[in-house]
Amino acid sequence: MESTVIHSDPPERRPAAADLREIILGAQDNLVNVLATVLGVAIGSGSTKIVALAGLASGIAEAISMGGVLYTSTCAERDLQRRANGNGAPGADLKDPFRAAVVTFVAALLAAAIPLAPFAFLSIRRAMLVAAVLSVVALFALGGYKGGVTGRPRWRDGIQFVAIGSLAALASALVGAALKTNVG
Predict the structure, then answer these.
(1) Which of 29, 46, 112, 129 is exposed most, by the fewest CB atoms within 10 A?
(2) What's the pTM value of the predicted model, to 2 decimals?
(3) How do the domains of the chain map onto residue ranges?
């Protein structure tokens, strides 16, 4: 039986919800992206050095890109709001573009390390397994966090995040298997 949590503040005013969009975008997207990259490259190349190179390059580029996208899209939202208000001051509920960018960048960078780290310490086969397990746990936890903040069942949102990540990882693994090459 699930309990319902009643909050006096609306979700968008709760502290945990302030950066929810940015945390989810950065963490979920880059965790899935890097997991898919390292699994596909690991299966396709069999080389931990190539996996590390591809995963690191992908994770850093994606974190910078997502931070930049959040900056420009948040600026666009503010500009639209100013235009709608007749060029007056924006509403107090608009996000700061710099903060949105930084939160997204940091969340993305931290999330990228989860599937990438095992390849620095383990054989390629073990690293693939550990990366997948750690990523599934992290995705479930991130989905549970989202569910807790939004008042939805944590387990349901956790499973949703895991399903999305698993689909991307499976697609990349299939590409790696189909295009497998011998790297010397």
Answers:
(1) 129
(2) 0.82
(3) 19-177
